[in-house]
Batch of 3 targets.
Target 1
Amino acid sequence: MSSTKPVSTPSISPLAALSLKLVGIVTILASLLDFIVLLIPPDLLNRQWQIATTTQLVDRGIVPLVGITLILTGEWIESYVLTPPRRRNLLTDSRFWASLLSTLLGIVFLLLAFLHPSNVLSTRNQALEQISNEASQAEAQLEQRFSQQRSEIGALLNNEGQLQQAIESGQVPQEQIPVLQQLQDNPEGVNQFLEEQLGSARQQVQTEIGSRRQEAQKRVNREAWKSGIRIVMSSLMLAVGYSVIGWTGLRRLFALRSAA
């Protein structure tokens, strides 16, 4: 008869639980230190600083959650696998501090999810206002330049010597020379000529300025939308994850103490 050897159940080393808790604590402390460094120096009245800081906090927000999970897993192994459950002081129970930290971080990320859209919207409006101001300044400079050109051409038409000198030096295009010479004998046609010469150029530049303004506005709106959606959704997911773990852990701990 063949004998079968009993299958032995692999035992879990206490080192596994200790390692999980130790790595979890180090992960949390390192991430919290990183958060503190991001907040120094604080510039709470600067919306750009708020947006940049919120973005970096949310991007790194998963790290403490991993540390909290490692601590709770190590505690579970130690309390329910290696040794029988026992009543412990909350102040010395790492599960309590991990759950409390998780709850606090859940509240923080929930607040960030509501504050970030306001900052993004305000920054977007400021960027759009700046774009409009720059476009208005460009149009004002354009009108000033065309007004100056109008004065220069008018001065040439009123002074035959300057006109002849400008023609000889090549400052006047060849196709405009006959027209300018005719206008010397027809002062009433000067304004019409200037409008024809400068009007099309003005319209072209104004169209280019308008196109640039529209492109800049679309780019600002697109970037604000993408940044807002990504950070808000990530922050909400982090808030839910932290809150569920935190509240569940605290409720479980207090229920155990009440039962005992």
Target 2
Amino acid sequence: MDQNPLDALTANLYQFTKKERAIAEFILGDPQYAFQCDAETIAQKTGTSKAAFIRLCQKIGYNGYAEFRFALSRSMFSNPPEAVATDDPILRITHAYARFIEQIPNSISLDDLRAIASLILQARRVKIFGYNRTFLSAQQLRMRMGKMGLDAEAIGDTISMMDIAETMTKVDVIVLFSIKALDQFYGNFVREAHSRQCPIILITMTPNNKFTDLVTHQLVMPYISKSTTKAFLDDQAIFFVFIELLLNELARQVSTN
């Protein structure tokens, strides 16, 4: 389906029931915030129900909330920033990164950062997972937290991730950096940690993944390597900027406690 879900909501606004219209107006009023919410949260905030939300999605051509949310995320992130019309690679590449970094506020909110920082600071143990290149992001967060006097461990192999997941509890926290959130790499340990009620914070660039309902927080960053084809740009720079935002909030909460 190629339609923009926001356009579909607007076009059908006056054909919805009272409850469906309340949901539609909530989404249209702040699409970025609505994208960060699950169906239950939106239903609660609009005084409706998840069933009403599903009916709304079906009326505008989607099978349900998951398909609607994926279409919403695609409409928000599928239009990459325009490249600078120049042969100077320095200007072209720095401009591309700058424009994608500017999209980060569309992906996360201050409430997100506050909730995640609070989880980390209250946790008995903090384990930061990343595989292959995203292990660099896990190491960066661990190192920067260490300089603040906050203890954490970075893990980069899936066998160790599973071993650790089997020891985690609801008073611990897992932070997972994964661009694509592939089930083949992370599925077993994510489900294991979820079964043990361990909070999981997923930092990814793929909104339509199998872990959405298993993690405590999911933040979807701009996907620069997928959205640009004229240069080999790496996604870790985006993760590194997110890390600085998280560290700023950690420092703020530490200083006020």
Target 3
Amino acid sequence: MGLFLGALGPFGTITSNPFVRFLYWPGVIVGGGVIGIAVDELGGRRFANPWLRWAFSSVVMTPGVCVLVWFASGWAFGPSPLKSVLSLVWQVFIISAAVMAVRQLIAQRASASAASAPPVEPASDAQFRQRLSARRREARLIAVEAEDHYLRVHTDAGSELVSARFADALSDLAGVAGFQVHRSWWAAAGAIEGVRWRRGRGELQLAGGLVAPVSRTYAARLKAAGWF
């Protein structure tokens, strides 16, 4: 979009040096886009209606983008008189709304594609269960915890120490509905009852009163799944 506007030269920029124009427009579009995405992610998520979200993000991002454009325009085209501020706000809002509309349309198309995709059969944890004793082989799997060169496997029939590496457990459980939440913890998705995040650290509440740590490194997948 920045290159397109650089070629189009809207709002009188067509008369400027082409080199400056093709630096200016991509710069303000990318910079403004970063501001818009931050506003959309932090505040826009509260709106269930996608177009209310678009309107909110477009309006709220405009002041911040105006500051960016004001300084970028001063560098590229020279200082602007204060009386041009109102026209600047309108121009920034129009382009911000267009950029965020494109973002919203892409997000809707991606959601529609995901919804229409055929369901993927969850992988089986049968291979991992072969490591367990007969008593717990059919039990509900809750979590796997690394302890030195052993694994402590938590099930609804109690826990059990298994001689195996954590990397081997992750390999056996690849594709199974669950999350690695720490360098030494894996939790079954169906066993998660809640997530608490405070002061840069997280805790996972699991079935049976079990609590697992959540590190920043592995928090993104839980966040993407809607747990916090």
